[in-house]
């Protein structure tokens, strides 16, 4: 599995219930501007294993701050770049020697994929 997603594939999947071509174009143009201005996303052209060449988006930002489900933000709204302290005394992303269990959720498309 690649670490990136095809922009066209994502567009078609996200906007599958929007049937107006004009509205689809407007919506996706706004989405593309926001995503491509995000410093954590790399836009490039890649070739898939099947030989298909397409424009892709790849997440290159840190995932460590997302582990607490709060995006690394404190209750005050400020961001802690050094990790978030846990009740056990450790920090997210920094092992304190204790075995930690993390919930793993699988993406559900809601329809079969062939």
Along the chain, the helix and strand elements come as EHHEE
The biggest sheet, with number of strands, parallel, antiparallel or mixed sense and barrel status, is: 3 strands, antiparallel
| Strand arrangement, major sheet | 1-3-2
- Strand share of the residues? 5-15%
What is the residue-mean pLDDT, rounded to a whole number?
75
| Global Rg | 18 Å
Low-confidence stretches: 89-95
Shape: globular
Total number of distinct structural domains: 2
Count of extended strands:
3
Structural class: alpha+beta
Distance between the termini: 16 Å
Number of helices: 2
Helicity, in percent? 10-25%
What does this structure look like?
There is one protein chain. By secondary structure, this protein is of the alpha+beta class. It has 2 domains: 4-59, no CATH class; 63-96, no CATH class. The protein has helices at residues 7-14, 21-37, and strands at residues 4-6, 41-47, 53-59. A 3-stranded antiparallel beta sheet has the order 1-3-2. Strand 2 and strand 3 form a beta hairpin. The chain is globular. It starts with a strand and ends in a 55-residue tail after the last strand. This is Inner nuclear membrane protein enriched at telomere/subtelomere region.
Please give the structural blueprint:
Layout lengths: L3 E3 H8 L6 H17 L3 E7 L5 E7 L55
Antiparallel strand pairs: 1-3, 2-3
Subcellular location: Nucleus inner membrane
Protein name: Inner nuclear membrane protein enriched at telomere/subtelomere region
Pfam families: MSC
Keywords:
114 residues, alpha+beta, 2 domains, 3-stranded antiparallel beta sheet
């Amino acid at each position: 599995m690649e670490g990136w997603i095809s922009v066209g594939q994502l567009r078609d999947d996200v906007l599958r219930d929007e049937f107006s071509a004009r509205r689809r174009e407007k919506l996706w143009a706004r989405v593309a501007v926001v995503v491509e201005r995000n410093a954590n996303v790399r836009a490039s052209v890649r070739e898939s294993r099947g030989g298909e060449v397409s424009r892709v988006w790849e997440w290159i930002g840190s995932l460590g701050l997302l582990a607490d489900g709060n995006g690394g933000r404190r209750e005050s709204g400020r961001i802690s770049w050094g990790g978030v302290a846990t009740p056990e005394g450790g920090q997210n992303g920094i092992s304190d020697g204790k075995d930690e269990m993390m919930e793993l959720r699988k993406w559900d498309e809601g329809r079969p994929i062939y």
